[in-house]
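In response to reviewer comment 3 from the previous cycle, which asked for concrete evidence that the modeling workflow produces usable outputs, we include below a single protein chain processed end to end. The sequence was submitted unchanged, and the resulting structure tokens are shown without manual editing.
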Amino acid sequence: MKRTLKKEVMEWANEIRVNPKEIQVCHLKNKWGCCTDGKLIFSHELLNKSKDFRASVIVHELLHLRYKSHNKIFFMLWQAYLNKKGIKLNPCLVRNYKNKLKRKT
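The workflow returned the following structure tokens.
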């Protein structure tokens, strides 16, 4: 199953034209994924989610290889890449990230 997730990540990476240094799938307590210094880490819990939900998380983390912050362009590209494949961006994910941004400012 981990191989399936890593394959999905690389397919999206090719679409977005980014190249992660490393991809790991492991236990994460409080998030679906993270991006640090070109390395992507995804929660093993993603394996139990729908392919569309996984795509939302994967694209989000891959975009961090180009854009470090959750700015307007980031959200527009996140939605555009998913829409291109007929995937609707999960509103719960967007709301969660936008709420975190409000708490930081």
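The mean pLDDT is 86. We consider this sufficient to address the reviewer's concern, and the full set will be provided in the supplementary archive.
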